[in-house]
Amino acid sequence: MKNYGALFKNGLVKENPLLVLMIGLCSSLAVTTSVANGIGMGIAMTFVLLMSEVIISLFRKLIPDSIRIPVFIIVIASFTTIVDLCMKAYTPALSKSMGVFIPLIVVNCIIMGRVEAFASKRTVDEVIFDALGMGLGYTWVLTGISAVRELLGAGSLLGFRLLPEDLSIGFFAQSPGGFFVFGFFIALNFAIKKAGEKKKSRAGCDSRAGISDSDMENKEENAE
């Protein structure tokens, strides 16, 4: 039986596209000046990634290897155009705020990488969980970075002021601030992973020690 849960969790943490694979960073750091931008970009990416992976998986056996890259780009561009037009129609302010970074989803390394490495070789049910995991993993990191940058850089969250203007730090609203917050998230993720590995290692040592103690007791009883 296929482990769909592992596929989903893979993109959320273990192979998170931003914190672990570190791809698609340009647009990610550019749009994370506000939470609204982060959420909007994350949803747009997740939609394009999901639909592109599903379509490529469905027709993977019909696509010749010699033209697979142009076909992938056409599929991704189609869904990116749908997202771009829908945002311009229903959320014009958000669309204007993110500028060219929505159309640039076409060349985002995350989508092209997953389509080429995963969707072109797997079944539809597998790619759905992979796309959702990768998309949500991308979205939560984007939203987290956006929240820190908006709160510290503008003193607000989703437009609601939480800190006085005197306490806001303009550095976090600029590009260097984005790199700084992103680096902090990477360090935090690394520290959590290390702590988890140490915990597993200790648990393994304790279990082995318990087995050794019981073996010694059994030997002593047998000797008696």
Explain this structure:
This protein is mainly α and 224 residues long. Helices cover 73% and strands 2% of the residues. It contains 8 helices and 2 strands; from the N terminus they run H-H-H-H-H-H-H-E-E-H. Strands 1-2 form a two-stranded antiparallel sheet. The mean pLDDT is 86.
List its salient traits.
single chain; mainly alpha; two-stranded antiparallel ribbon; flat
Which helices and strands occur, and which strands form pairs?
Layout: H1 4-14, H2 25-31, H3 35-58, H4 68-90, H5 92-98, H6 109-119, H7 124-154, E1 156-157, E2 160-161, H8 175-223
Antiparallel strand pairs: 1-2
Helix pairs in contact: 1-7, 3-4, 3-6, 3-7, 4-5, 4-6, 7-8
In short:
Helices cover 73% and strands 2% of the residues. It contains eight helices and two strands; from the N terminus they run αααααααββα. α3 runs antiparallel to α4 (68-90) and α3 (35-58) packs antiparallel against α7 (124-154).
Number of helices: 8
SSE-based structural type = mainly alpha
Counting DSSP E segments of at least 2 residues, the number of strands comes to 2
Terminal CA distance? 49 Å
Q: Note the run of SSEs as H and E.
A: HHHHHHHEEH
Instruction: Please state how the strands of the largest beta sheet are arranged side by side.
Output: 1-2
- Compute the CA-based radius of gyration: 23 Å
Q: In this structure, how is the largest beta sheet organized? A: 2 strands, antiparallel
Low-confidence segments, ≥5 residues, pLDDT <50? none
Strand composition percent: under 5%
